[in-house]
Amino acid sequence: MEIINLLSKADRVVGRLDMFSEYVPNIDLFISMHVYKEATKSSNIEGTQTKMEEALLDEEDVPLDKRDDWAEVQNYILAMNQAIKHLQTLPLSSRLIRDTHKALMSGVRGENKYPGEFRRSQNWIGGSSPTDALFVPPVFGEIPILISDIEEFIHNPVCDLPDLVKIALIHYQFETIHPFNDGNGRVGRLLITLYLVSKGILKRPILYLSDYLESHRRSYYDRIMGVRFGDDVASWVKFFLEGVIVTAEKGTMALNEIMALQKEYEEIIKEMGSRSANALKLIDSMYQNPFIDITKTAGIIGQSFPTAKTLIENLVEKGILSEITGGRRGKKYVMSRYINIFLK
């Protein structure tokens, strides 16, 4: 009954989030911020130190010692966007999983570990070798048939398990197979959103669990290991459904806050007279990335540098933008109240 009750609530809150996303103007701009957050949190689970604010910066603005981590987060964003696009023409399949892994791993740490190819050697989790490992995944020769089994489970029309339970099992199974030499955790977490979109449960890719899984990392690992060594599937499914509920509720709350902030900013901008049109154009573009400088502003509004500078200064005075560098040259500005919605 506990699982049934959790499943009922999870279905309700995911349905509410999906419906809500249909009515939010420019939802794709806000989804890009969700993807940045997901990419950052999922990569953090694997040990990167990049914060969401840093992931939104241009490469030249990232300190040299953090650029490798930054690049891995950018690859995650690329992999997610590519996979969502491919779902329009490809089923959720071994091919799509391998293509996503290739986008995730190419050109970053781990690029020498066969991006887009299933492993051809034994790997293990924890410890220094398979003999003292916490867990040893299946031998590499079994991977094609095991991944095919996941494909069949995804698309089996007579399997009447609820979709949220199915994706909980799919995620567990993928992580247990550990089919790649590197990047398994990130691909496995991407699979959750891809499955929900592919099944039409979400019309937009707006539910991401990595923030919850990172916040409950110890429990996440314990529940996964509990299935591997104790057949405790129920505890894992409960944990997963609780994560879906918390994440969907936070997502709906964030969309509510975004819409309220949009309305507030539009009212402020209306009072800016002849600068209103350019201000609205700039702010609308910043919902996709809330960091800006004067040079970029000039390009967005199609005006001169002095005009862009005056507009930025007006928006700072109105409390919409904040200057974050403190320098006299090369100043950077951020829509801080907006980004703070995603940092909660």
How is this structure best described in words?
The protein has 344 residues and is an all-alpha fold. It has 2 domains: 2-11 and 26-247, Fido-like domain (Fic-like fold), CATH 1.10.3290.10; 271-342, Arc Repressor Mutant, subunit A. The chain is 63% helix and 2% strand. The protein is built from 15 helices and 3 strands. It has helices at 2-22, 27-45, 52-55, 67-86, 94-105, 143-155, 163-177, 184-198, 210-215, 217-230, 233-270, 276-286, 294-301, 305-317, 336-342; strands spanning 291-292, 322-323, 333-334. A 3-stranded antiparallel β-sheet has the order 1-3-2.
Encode the helix/strand succession as letters: HHHHHHHHHHHHEHHEEH
Low-confidence stretches: none
Structural class from helices and strands? mainly alpha
Overall domain count: 2
Give the strand content.
Answer: under 5%
Number of separate helices:
15
Notable traits:
15 helices; mainly alpha; globular; Fic-like fold; three-stranded antiparallel sheet
In short:
With 344 residues, the chain is mostly helical. Helix content is 63%, strand content 2%. The chain folds into two domains: 232 residues, Orthogonal Bundle (Fic-like fold); 72 residues, Winged helix-like DNA-binding domain superfamily/Winged helix DNA-binding domain (Arc Repressor Mutant, subunit A, Orthogonal Bundle), CATH 1.10.10.
Element layout with pairings:
Layout: H1 2-22, H2 27-45, H3 52-55, H4 67-86, H5 94-105, H6 143-155, H7 163-177, H8 184-198, H9 210-215, H10 217-230, H11 233-270, H12 276-286, E1 291-292, H13 294-301, H14 305-317, E2 322-323, E3 333-334, H15 336-342
Antiparallel strand pairs: 1-3, 2-3
